[in-house]
TrEMBL record, chain A:
It comes from the Bacteria. Keywords: Cell membrane, Membrane, Transmembrane, Transmembrane helix. It is a multi-pass membrane protein. It holds the Pfam family BPD_transp_2. InterPro entries: ABC_transp_permease. Its main location: membrane. It is found in: Cell membrane. The chain crosses the membrane at residues 35-55, 120-138, 150-167, 173-194, 203-222, 254-272, 302-321, 374-399. This is Nucleoside ABC transporter membrane protein.
Automatic annotation (TrEMBL), chain B:
The keyword Signal applies. Coiled coil: none annotated. It comes from Actinoplanes couchii. PANTHER family: ABC TRANSPORTER GUANOSINE-BINDING PROTEIN NUPN, TRANSCRIPTIONAL ACTIVATOR PROTEIN MED. Residues 1-23 form the signal peptide. Keywords: Cell membrane, Lipoprotein, Membrane, Signal. It is found in: Cell membrane. The keyword Lipoprotein applies. Its main location: membrane. InterPro entries: BMP_lipoprotein, Peripla_BP_I, PnrA-like. This is BMP family ABC transporter substrate-binding protein. Residues 48-335 form the ABC transporter substrate-binding protein PnrA-like domain. It is a lipid-anchor.
Length: 420, 364
């Protein structure tokens, strides 16, 4: 993804003439390319997060009260707090060395050792789909705020299909997944159609549809035939075992959804790069007027694009309900649609970058659970970290100014975000 | 332009630095020997709690349970309490599992909604000790803490019927779940008992015990929802209202406050004059569910090495003060002495079994 930003610079003859290879290399490394900007955004977010951790801990903060008298107290306790927090974050996301040692020594099972990774992938899977949904719509020049609503509808339709049909194994799962896609696609199709036919702005219509789907879900789960038998609270029947995404079970919650996510990411990448529809999307996204002049039906592209984006988000909802939740509750979709927006921004609307951004968010979430549980630091810290990373990504000029980066010689950066 | 701006930044930094330096001039405390801390940590009894969706500051059952853990720490110093807050139902399981892997000695699930997942995790981690509030699964390693809340709510219903001037009293719940409807059952029964004893016709709005149907805010946090539900009840004529909805109930307290004495509120869970003191002057009384004491006792027992038997577990009722009707506080002078003595006799009658209070949601 960086190759394109680096190679032209090397070819261009430098006026000074006597630049060594290392100089050119370093200069390009420290120019504002996407990888470096993303990495620095993460670094900045971590630094600000560290300050927040210290500020929110009364005990450590008290030690700053006598900073001039004995600075070592404040510094060492802050360092200890920050390093525990971040090491717990990493261990919660990727694995705890102590548990691996215990596994090799035979006192722990391999499942326990891989639990953190499994959690990361579990949280990442639905975000990949909702992220791709937002990213794809962005490429066509549409701001799909409705990923949340589409994911909720995906949850609803997939969940209901999962416990009502009672089809044989494999078929049941396939039908439930397809149902989720159709549900989401419908919820994307409506704003797409409204945009194409009446010019209603998709931001407004999708936000309204978010409310509609959330309220529909909370109404639906307490209806007879949907609500779990013997329960008076808002929870639906459990999805049939044959319609659940296969998972190793026990402490490992990871499920087939993550593999599906890889395949779908590859599919979306192919769609954008190689297919005729992908070309139309990009053409309409770059300039709808020019696209129309060139003979592309902008209205048709909008409708189709929103339906596909909705289907992707619906699939995200379906993996949530068929993979982890197994029953519908009013909060079953959590925040996956809105997190998908952040993931797409972080991934700069490119399919594979979005995939890795979702993995990063999954890792932060899994690690956040561990920070909260082991170090007693609020889970909100993770939300703040996620938000900070995205703020810095969305404001590349800020990062460039802070680190005094040279401007990259490619215009690719920021161009995709400017429309947002 | 540029140098001026540079100087300005330097000046701001210098000023900020001076303020910080001034704030940092405190005396350093004497070094404390570290030995005492480490011995306590060795034998620490880790009491770990997973909250329900309301979060730790819900001024209701999560807050009570957490207060219980902290109270236990005051009594037995090696108790080391910590908690995780759940932001959605999907967080229950990782929260519990994470505490299993940290080998917590006491893992507390707060709220009946966590019943199923707690049972599942407890079955797979048979060596860990679990506890749960408002649920009983029958697993041998889950210590259930349940409350015969309908007994205290019965007294509250009687009080409300006796105090009401309009002849109509109201109640509503946060969600239609057993730990909520048990309050409403008791309340409705209390009113009905008042009607039979006194030959009156006080009406209950918001809950029908026979059909088990009523008004619910569908939230334990949304105060505006509480306000609108309450306004509906008030417009139908209710002048004493019991919200069983955690933080949502604060909306009811606000409506009562705005009514300038016409409407009064019966609070639930923790005494309203402590947990929501700003509204103390509208709280007629509180149906207290003493989760704090129950949790504290369980943890103290566990920390002392006593076994926590899953059967019968803990059932709080009027006789062991697990549930009770709180003081009248600012209403003390307004509730007439006759009603007060009747409540005392009624309480004794419920304890002795002379008056039977029943609820479909009662702990079995």
């Amino acid at each position: 993804m960086t190759a394109e930003t680096q190679t032209p610079a090397v070819k261009k003859p430098e006026p000074a003439g006597d630049d060594s290879f290392m100089n050119v290399f370093l200069r390009n490394l420290w120019s504002a390319n996407n990888v470096l900007l993303t990495a620095l955004s993460v670094v900045l977010a971590v630094v600000i997060g560290a300050v927040l951790i210290v500020v929110s801990d009364a005990e450590v903060l008290a030690k700053f009260g006598y900073f001039t008298a004995r600075p070592s107290d404040a510094l060492s306790s802050s360092w200890e707090l920050i390093s525990t927090a971040y090491s717990e974050l990493l261990m919660g996301a990727f694995g705890d060395p102590a548990v691996f040692q215990a596994w090799f020594a035979g006192t722990a099972t391999w499942q326990q050792a891989f639990t953190p990774l499994s959690e990361t992938l579990t949280y990442a899977a639905p975000l990949v789909f909702t992220g791709l949904s937002v990213a794809l719509a962005f490429r066509g020049g549409l701001f799909n705020i409705g990923a949340q609503g589409q994911a909720v509808l995906g949850c609803i339709v997939a969940g209901v299909a999962g416990f009502s049909f009672g089809l044989p194994i494999v078929l049941n799962l396939a039908v439930a997944l397809v149902a989720g896609v159709i549900g989401g696609a419908l919820w994307g199709f409506i704003p797409g159609l409204l945009k194409a036919r009446t010019g209603a702005h998709e931001v407004i219509t999708t936000i309204m549809l978010n409310y509609t789907s959330a309220l529909f879900l909370s109404w639906l789960v307490i209806q007879k035939g949907v609500q779990a038998e013997g329960r008076s609270d808002a929870i639906s029947k459990t999805v049939a075992e044959s319609a659940q995404l296969p998972s190793p079970g026990g402490v490992l919650r990871v499920h087939l959804g993550i593999i599906l996510a890889v395949l779908v990411t590859a599919g979306v990448a192919w769609l954008l790069k190689r297919s005729a529809f992908g070309f139309e999307i990009r053409a309409v996204g770059a300039n709808p007027h020019a696209a129309r002049t060139a003979g592309i039906s902008v209205a048709r592209t909008y409708v189709l694009l929103m339906a596909v984006a909705g289907g992707l988000a619906g699939l995200g909802g379906a993996t949530q309900v068929l993979g982890t939740a197994h029953a519908l509750t009013p909060a079953v979709a959590g925040n996956i649609g809105f997190d998908g927006l952040l993931v797409a921004l972080l991934g700069r609307n490119r399919p594979w970058s979005t995939f890795f951004a979702a993995l990063l968010f999954g890792a932060l979430r899994a690690g956040g659970n561990r920070i909260q549980s082991f170090a007693g630091i609020s889970l909100e810290l993770v939300t703040v970290l996620q938000a900070l990373i995205v703020i810095f990504i969305a404001a590349p000029a800020l990062v460039k100014a802070i680190f005094r980066l040279r401007a990259a010689r490619s215009t690719g950066l920021g161009a995709s975000l400017a429309k947002g | 332009m540029r140098p001026v701006r540079g100087k300005r930044i330097v000046a701001i930094l210098a000023a900020g630095g001076l303020t910080l330096a001034a704030a940092a001039c405190g005396e350093a405390p004497a070094e404390t020997p570290a030995a005492s801390g480490s011995t306590a940590a060795e034998a620490a009894y880790k009491a770990c709690m997973v909250t329900d969706l309301g979060g730790i500051d819900d001024k209701s059952f999560n807050a009570s349970a957490w207060a219980g853990l902290q109270a236990a720490q005051k009594e037995v110093s090696n108790v080391d309490p910590k908690y995780v807050a759940s932001s959605s139902e999907a967080d229950y399981e990782p929260g519990l599992r994470s505490y299993v892997s940290q080998s917590c000695n006491f893992i507390l699930a707060v709220g009946g909604l966590m019943g199923e997942v707690t049972t599942k995790v407890a079955k797979e981690s048979s060596s860990s000790q679990f506890a749960i509030v408002d649920s009983n699964s029958g697993n041998s390693n889950i210590y259930p803490m349940q409350f015969a809340t309908h007994q205290a709510a019965f007294l509250a219903g009687y009080l409300a019927a006796g105090y009401s001037k309009s002849g109509k009293v109201g109640t509503y719940g946060g969600l239609k779940i057993a730990p909520v409807t048990i309050f409403m059952d008791g309340f409705a029964d209390g009113v009905a008992h008042y009607n039979t004893v006194k030959g009156k016709k006080v009406e209950v709005l918001g809950w029908n015990k026979a059909s088990q149907n009523g008004t619910f805010a569908e939230s334990f946090i949304d105060q505006n929802k509480g306000k609108s539900v309450t306004e509906t009840l008030v417009s139908q004529g209710a002048d004493v209202i019991m919200p069983v909805a955690g933080g949502t109930g604060l909306g009811t307290a606000q409506v009562a406050k705005d009514s300038a004495g016409k409407v009064s509120v019966i609070w639930v869970d923790q005494d309203g004059c402590t947990s929501a003191a700003q509204y103390c002057d509208v709280f007629l009384s509180t149906v207290v569910k003493n989760i704090e004491e129950a949790v504290k006792e369980a943890v103290v027992k566990g920390a002392k090495g006593e076994t926590l038997a899953a059967a019968p577990g803990y059932v709080g009722d009027l006789s062991n003060e697990g549930v009770s009707l709180a003081e009248f506080h600012s209403f003390d002078s307004k509730v007439d002495a006759g009603l007060k003595t009747e409540l005392e006799t009624l309480k004794a009658d419920v304890i002795s079994g002379k008056v039977k209070v029943e609820s479909a949601s009662a702990p079995k």
